[in-house]
Design brief:
Blueprint (H helix, E strand, L loop, with lengths): L48 H24 L3 H24 L8 H17 L3 H12 L11 H10 L3 H14 L5 H18 L2 H14 L3 H14 L2 H12 L9 H14 L6 H24 L7 H13 L5 H17 L3 H13 L7 H18 L2 H14 L7 H20 L3 H21 L4 H20 L3 H21 L4 H17 L4 H19 L4 H13 L3 H14 L4 H13 L3 H14 L4 H13 L3 H14 L4 H13 L3 H37 L1
Helix pairs in contact: 1-2, 1-3, 2-3, 3-4, 4-5, 5-6, 6-7, 7-8, 8-9, 9-10, 9-12, 10-12, 12-14, 13-14, 14-15, 15-16, 16-17, 16-18, 17-18, 18-19, 18-20, 19-20, 20-21, 21-22, 22-23, 23-24, 24-25, 25-26, 26-27, 27-28, 28-29, 29-30, 30-31
């Protein structure tokens, strides 16, 4: 029969819903077997010199890009290596074109880029002579019409090498080649010339450069430099005018200072923060401008008027007249107080800071008020007025909206709590002391939360935990003692990561390791002992003449049975502080053990001069005389001791022994009688003491 005609007269080519015929798997729509992916394109043979040149040029461009990227990543060694390789390949490219008569294809711009990049990488790697040679080759080549601008780079190198006359020469040569249309570049070069004159101490020429810029296109950096030059020349009137001109400079975005701060506060309260790069740039620029203004104001305020107060008042009034600098005026009020403190005029400093409470809060922000209270807290704390210090510490935290910004306020308040805890401990109210120490610890922790690297908070936290450890040790709570000591160690180890060269930090670490080596037992104690030795060794390189540190380190070495090293360290300690009795005693005992009795006598005699009422030192001197066979000298020393301390049983015993050895029968009998009387007196004294103790106990029971 006939095949049934399909429902549609038109069918799409290719696959059908009914599937393919058996045996057609892997077939395409044309019925041919699948061949897999197409083979890669054949590489074109580089037989044509022009093609070879293009390929070489591409390699040079690639190396230039890699060099620039490495430089941006501060991988200067790699950037220089790529730059050298690019220069090498570029020379090979030029030679190839010369050989093959392709001079019309010479790429001058590529040669310039390669040379410039090489010079730039030499400069970044601080290979200044090589950089100068490369720049010189470029600027001397007449083919590079704009190369004269590179003399700015050469000037910068001479500036870094402190060859300021050569730098000025290069800057001026570059200035001659910059057209008047490039005003921005011209002013930057003029500012560099002014900076070089300042370094040379030629302030008058520097002023001329800066004044030219300020007349044409004023900017804050140049304005600040100009004020500094006026300050160096002691020209008070020009300092005032220069500062006024700085305040008159207008820059885009600078007028919105107060509004931006309000917006920032609103964003922080709502938890919203827009990712606005332009706004971030403007805020950063405002910070820079504010810093220039503050530094200039602090510099001139103490000098421009007859008195320091008048100078600050003049600057502050000028700042208050301009809306966007009112916050800077408040900063200057605090700086004024700090200057009074530096002059030890504490009362005036307190008046300035206390005035913030009386002023309209619209004149200053909450952060400035918090800073004023923080300084007052610190001043009263140093004066020992704990009540007022505590009051202002609390006020500083409240003014700071809790603890959003001012870590120093939290540290000061923590110090107040610490001092209250010590007062409670002195009154033997240990429960209250524990609570106050714990409050101080929490405040320090909050300070670290506000500013992760607030070294004052971290250091005081460590001291707080050590104080808590000492309290628990005194109460016999050894487990709590170890816990607090380990917490203190954790704080100081964190501080060490921030300030590895701090002697205070290293001292606390070393002494805590030392304590833990005793408290923890083996094997942990052994590990802490090793850490203590390392820490003390590091500390002795930082405070080479600290006798106390050397003594601690020496005794630690003695505990480890390293007596040779301990002797050297303790001898250094004795040189810097020759009245430390523990050190003197150890050195004397060391020489006795080494059978160097004459040397031992020097230290025992020194100890006897320091503690004349302590009989044991002269007994040791006499013992040294006896050991070296100087019996007459020993006898004389014992007799001198016996005159001053007639009831000393030990001295009388030695006198009897030495008199027997010398065959002095009469003296022997005399001292035996004195020894008997001394022993009777001692027994009588012992009985009386015991009787008094019993009577005291009976009276307490009744």
């Amino acid at each position: 029969g006939e095949e049934v005609r399909p429902m549609t007269s038109i069918r799409a080519a290719g696959y059908t819903s009914g599937g393919g015929k058996p045996g057609t798997a892997g077939m395409n729509q044309f019925g041919t077997a699948g061949q897999g992916p197409a083979p890669p394109l054949a590489t074109k043979e580089m037989t044509n010199p022009e093609d070879v040149a293009k390929e070489k040029e591409k390699e040079v461009n690639t190396l230039l890009e890699e060099s620039a990227i490495a430089n941006s990543q501060k991988k200067y060694a790699l950037a220089l290596e790529k730059a050298k390789e690019a220069a090498k390949k570029e020379r090979a490219l030029c030679k190839h074109r010369e050989t093959n008569n392709l001079m019309d294809q010479m790429n001058i711009d590529l040669t310039y880029s390669v040379c410039f990049n090489l010079a730039n990488q030499y400069q970044a790697s601080e290979m200044y002579n090589e950089a100068l040679n490369t720049y010189s080759l470029i600027v001397k080549n007449k083919q590079y019409s704009q190369s004269g601008r590179l003399r700015v780079n050469m000037g910068n190198i001479y500036y870094k090498q402190k060859k300021y006359p050569a730098a000025i020469k290069m800057y001026r040569m570059a200035l001659d080649q910059i057209p008047n249309t490039g005003k921005e570049m011209r002013f930057k070069i003029m500012r560099n010339i002014g900076n070089a004159f300042v370094k040379m101490g030629n302030y008058q020429d520097a002023i001329m450069s800066y004044e030219n810029i300020m007349e044409s296109r004023p900017d804050f950096q140049t304005g600040f430099n100009l004020v500094v030059c006026y300050f160096a020349r002691g020209d008070n009137e020009k300092m005032k005018k220069g500062f006024t001109k700085m305040l008159g400079i207008k820059e885009a975005g600078m007028e919105a200072g107060g509004e931006e701060e309000n917006e920032d506060a609103e964003e922080e309260e709502t938890g919203l923060e827009e990712d606005d790069e332009l706004k971030a740039v403007v805020k950063e620029r405002r910070r820079e401008v504010t810093q220039y203004i503050i530094q200039a104001a602090k510099l001139i305020a103490p000098k421009i008027e007859k008195t320091l107060e008048e100078g600050f008042n003049h600057v502050i009034e000028q700042l208050r007249t301009i809306k966007e600098y009112r916050d800077v005026a408040s900063d200057m009020e605090i700086s004024k107080a700090v200057y009074f403190l530096k002059q030890k005029n504490v009362e005036e400093a307190k008046k300035v800071l206390q005035a913030f409470d009386k002023k309209d809060h619209a004149e200053h922000d909450a952060t400035t008020l918090s800073r004023a209270h923080t300084n007052l807290c610190f001043i009263y704390f140093l004066e020992g007025d704990l009540a007022k210090a505590d009051h202002y510490g609390t006020a500083a935290i409240k003014a700071d909206k809790g603890d959003l910004y001012n870590a120093k306020a939290l540290v000061n308040k923590g110090n107040c709590e610490m001092q209250k805890g010590k007062n409670a401990e002195e009154k033997e109210d240990y429960d209250l002391a524990r609570q106050l120490y714990d409050d101080a610890k929490e405040l320090y922790m909050r300070g670290i939360g506000v500013e992760a690297e607030c070294v004052e908070a971290i250091f005081n936290l460590g001291l707080c935990k050590r104080t808590m450890a000492r309290l628990e040790q005194g109460c016999g709570n050894m487990e709590h003692y170890k816990h607090h000591l380990l917490s203190a160690l954790q704080a100081f180890e964190k501080l060490y990561q921030i300030l590895p060269e701090s002697p205070e930090c290293n001292f606390n670490m070393a002494t805590i390791y030392d304590e833990l080596s005793v408290a923890m037992g083996t094997p942990e104690g052994v590990e802490y002992l090793k850490k203590a030795q390392t820490a003390y060794k590091r500390l002795t390189t930082q405070v080479k003449y600290d006798a106390g540190v050397l003594a601690r380190y020496g005794f630690l070495l003695a505990r480890e049975d390293d007596e040779g090293m301990a002797f050297n360290v303790l001898l250094d300690s004795y040189k810097y502080y020759p009245v430390d009795m523990d050190v003197i005693s150890w050195l004397g005992a060391y020489f006795v053990k080494s059978e160097m009795y004459e040397k031992a006598m020097e230290y025992f005699q020194k100890a006897a001069h320091i503690q004349p009422k302590e009989v044991k030192w002269m007994l040791m001197v006499a013992s040294c005389h006896r050991r070296i066979g100087a019996y007459q000298q020993a006898l004389h020393t014992y007799e001198e001791i016996q005159k001053k301390h007639p009831d000393n049983i030990e001295c009388l015993g030695y006198l009897i022994r030495i008199c027997k050895e010398l065959g002095m029968r009469d003296k022997t009998e005399h001292y035996q009688k004195l020894l008997g009387d001394a022993e009777k007196n001692q027994d009588r004294f012992t009985r009386m003491t015991q009787q008094r103790e019993q009577e005291a106990m009976q009276s307490q029971n009744h």
